[in-house]
């Protein structure tokens, strides 16, 4: 039996694909694999100790999540976005995420509220950019955790994934005083969530996303046009 068709000794191809996708997802979101990095199946299979079959399926999973893009006869890579792409994705977020939040509010529990408080407390005492990005994602995804639509949640997460690298690059450049604004906006969102007030929640969240879009897209040096 050739390596291409051999079953991964650590589990089924399906389980192995999920494991590989999880590893690559973490590396992309952490900025270890940057936009434009080619995700070559042979190299990944050797590095991760598996065959090409689960690697191929893992890349399909990442593509569905907005973390990879494929090209005929060339393979897959971490997506490269232009300024226009990111501006469009953020405008999509401004419309989509308030709906996700509104759908989520009736189903959030005291456990979610307590977790949000802990996360926001840590954010307000955080100076490390990578840790902030993880906490910021945790904060917002927790507010969406009650959303009953898996499709809506998947679309929301895909848009987050697509802009992660550019959000990280922007945070490195940003004014330290910006943290005060972010924290104030988070506290307004958290207050609306606790009150289960969809109108306030949607208004605060829309403004939060829009302000980030305006500030982020003002830095044209962060973007590379697609080739």
CATH class of the largest domain: Mainly Alpha
Task: Strand order, main sheet: write it out.
Answer: 1-3-2
The N- and C-terminal alpha carbons lie at a distance of 40 Å
Main beta sheet: 3 strands, antiparallel
CATH topology name of the largest domain, in short, is: Four Helix Bundle (Hemerythrin (Met), subunit A)
Oligomerization category of the chains in this entry: single chain
Rg to the nearest angstrom?
19 Å
What is the typical, i.e. mean, pLDDT?
A: 89
Give the proportion of residues in helices.
55-70%
> Beta-sheet strand percentage?
under 5%
Order of helices and strands: HEHHEEHHHHHH
Structural class: mainly alpha
Q: List low-pLDDT spans.
A: 1-11
Secondary structure: number of strands: 3
Which geometry do the CA atoms define? Answer: globular
Note the topology.
Blueprint: H1 13-29, E1 38-39, H2 41-48, H3 52-64, E2 69-71, E3 75-77, H4 83-104, H5 110-123, H6 129-143, H7 150-173, H8 178-195, H9 198-217
Antiparallel strand pairs: 1-3, 2-3
